[in-house]
Design brief:
This protein has 82 residues and is mainly β. The chain has one domain. It is built from two helices and four strands. The strands form two sheets. It has a two-stranded antiparallel sheet. The longest helix has 6 residues. The chain is extended and about 40 Å long.
């Protein structure tokens, strides 16, 4: 069984908003960060995750990723229907 590398967690960001602070955790391997950043055509990444429980252990598992172009944000329902 492989383990998660020690540097997989890259940091956390808190963004102050009028509706309440948002907290974002950043995870990436060194290999995932070794790419040339291109502004277009893709501008957003969405993911759908689920929490799975086995006895006393709970894990968050990614189910799907959506790489988006354009400034308009679709609803989760629109993405899942597509």
């Amino acid at each position: 069984m492989e383990t998660i590398s020690a540097n997989f967690f890259r940091g956390d960001v808190t963004i102050e908003r009028s509706s309440g602070d948002g907290c974002y955790l950043i995870f990436a391997t060194t290999e995932q960060l070794a790419f040339k950043l291109v502004r277009k055509p893709f501008t957003r990444l969405y993911s759908v995750d689920a929490f799975l429980r086995s006895d006393d252990e709970v894990k968050q598992v990614p189910l799907a990723f959506f790489i988006m172009s354009g400034a308009k944000s679709p609803t989760t329902t629109q993405l899942l229907r597509a």
